From TrEMBL:
Cleaved signal peptide residues: 1-17
Pfam families reported for this sequence: Abhydro_lipase
Protein name, as recorded: Lipase
Source species, domain of life: Eukaryota
Keyword Lipid metabolism: yes
Entry keyword Signal: yes
Amino acid sequence: MCSKLLMLFVCVSLVSGRSPHADYIDELIRSESYNYIFPDNTLEDAKLDVPGLIRKYKYPMEVHEVTTSDGYILQMHRIPHGRDQNQVPDPKRPIVFLMHGLLCSSADWVMSGPGSAFGYLLAEEGYDVWMGNARGNYYSRKHISVNPDDIDFWQFSWDEIGDIDLPTMIDYILDHTEREKIYYVGHSQGTTVFFVMCSLHPEYNYKIKAMHAFSPIAFMAHNESPLLKAMASFDNSMKILSALIGVGEVMSNNLFLKWAGESFCKDQAITQAICSNILFYIGGWSDEQLNTTMMPVYFGHTPAGSSVRQFIHYEQGFFTKDFRRYNHGPLKNIVLYGTRLPPKYDLSNILVPVFLYYSNIDPLAAVPDVNRLYKELGSKSKMMILLPSFNHFDYVWGINANTLLYDVVIRLMRFVDAYDNFMRKPYLTEYYKILMG
């Protein structure tokens, strides 16, 4: 596993920086691409990085860095206690670890601001909040020996994130706080990598109190994402993706945006602003839950970076209809895995209580695929929670995410704390019915 000798710690950095796309936001406003006057506060949030955002709103903030066994330097952001409630530091405060989705970052958990963003809500409710950043994103774009401009830096998919990055960050948190267990909340790819971690390293079942999966993704057989389906239509996907997106890193050139814009945006003026961001090609958007006033903030922080292989790995799942390790080709597969085909992740290894939050209109976490995931995880200690009219990014950006989702998660975490072996108790289902009103 990940050597603790390789872990590097940096705490309470005082320097705030700019968001990944602060220059783009400046250009956007100058060009008057939006026929709308955005509040100065919104534009400021669009250009601040995550530490700057948290400090702006007067929350305590720490920056921690850990180095993985293969040399990637990952940055985590911590909100150790609340601003308005639960303000006193407490070493016994329960820990929640939040993990972002594909092309995203820790910004997802704070960019909606106090009173709305899950990171702040958890801190006010008395939790010690840690937010991870996967290798290759804006905050984890460093390596002990390889430059991110080098193709070798990008030779990873979400397999390595689940196999190496997550255990490294979780072990660091437990070691630093001297605690035994944490809560885990993941969105999209943040759920995928958790399933990877516990499949490959079952010992992490005993380090997690419960896992809350927002838009859970393992199986992709019924994927309806316009972008991923378009990519999958190419016969030689890796060659096409490398040309359109970049040799190793997504968004390393503008060809991809040009292609995607021509393919999906056309002349529909109402969607032109949305179509300027890759995230909406992947997961779509919901008119009911999308706060258009916040769009500069979303665009300022996303996309935050990923490797081409992360996309290709999902695409492989679309073709095989299975949840398998990355397919390097027969010869390399034999060297790495001992078989010509990459092995399936063993979901039966996942014993930790898992709550699956899903909806009928999410193009990435399709209901049949979530149902299959639920069955393969085993019904014991698992629960499916249907959210009406939630699209893929509404779990982190939705106008009503607070009342429809976050309140439910917090109540369920408190329920887990209150009862031992709670998932085996017959009244959990009845409790959930009362919870949902």
